[in-house]
Amino acid sequence: MEDKRVNELKGANMDIDLVSDNVGWDQSACPWNAAENTREHKCAVKDTSICKYFCGVKYLDSVLCSYPYENSDVL
Known about the structure:
two-stranded antiparallel ribbon, 5 strands, 2 helices, alpha+beta, about 15% helix
């Protein structure tokens, strides 16, 4: 059964940040950044962290995001 708390955000790249400017593809906005009117939150940062709302990547380049529900509550 599909969890309705997890959203599919289009247009991620392998930096998985959803805050890139001037990309050549359709890219969804990060809902956490939108809620806080910022650009500081990233889904994943290599060798640093993974966002507490990040639930994975779905083919083809979509991020699975559970904002505002923490991933530990939905996975």
